[in-house]
From TrEMBL:
GO cellular component, one term: cytoplasm
Domain S1 motif: 8-76
InterPro entries attached to this UniProt entry: NA-bd_OB-fold, Ribos_protein_bS1-like, S1_domain
Comp. bias (Basic and acidic residues): 123-135
UniProt source species: Anaerotignum faecicola
Name of the protein: General stress protein 13
PANTHER family: 30S RIBOSOMAL PROTEIN S1, S1 RNA-BINDING DOMAIN-CONTAINING PROTEIN 1
UniProt record, GO biological process: translation
Length: 150
């Protein structure tokens, strides 16, 4: 099936079909699939924005399954190393917020840790309340069950 093709080799092929999940690329006497996730470095919403039928593309052979006659290809992996990394529009820059910005965020107040002095007594109070509610519910269920059995 693929005497010339080897896993890891970069070859040139022609796009013969485009499907919503990927592109079928002809590699001479065989064909392989470039999954939509392997078309570009960034998220691909519509594959038709990146490849069209008849396009000549360089692809890297990711795997060859002789039994099922399937070849998995990648356009993304065939790119030069400096182009492979996804480019984000916003650089990662984690800087501490100013105090005024932090207080403007309502979630900040919600997630602020409570004082540890009160934590155990609050927990015990909540557990007592929960146990009382659970016992009341169980008593109610038992009363209903007893009425039905008569």
């Amino acid at each position: 099936m693929s005497e010339k093709l080897e896993v890891g080799s970069i070859v040139e092929g022609k796009v013969v079909r485009v499907k919503p999940f990927g592109a079928i690329v002809s590699l001479g006497n065989t064909q392989g699939l470039v999954h939509i996730s392997q078309v570009a470095n960034s998220f691909v919403q519509d594959i038709n924005d990146h490849v069209k039928v008849g396009d000549m593309v360089k692809v890297k052979v990711l795997s060859i399954d002789e039994e099922s006659h399937k070849i998995v290809l990648s356009i993304r992996e065939a790119l030069p190393k400096e182009e492979r990394r996804p480019k984000s529009n916003k650089p990662f820059n984690k800087q501490p917020r100013r105090q005024s910005e932090a207080s403007a965020n309502p979630a900040q107040e919600y997630f602020r840790p409570q004082s540890s002095v009160n934590a155990s007594s609050d927990f015990e109070d909540k557990m007592k309340e929960w146990m009382k509610q659970a016992n009341d519910r169980q008593t109610s269920l038992n009363k209903r069950a007893n009425k039905r059995s008569y």
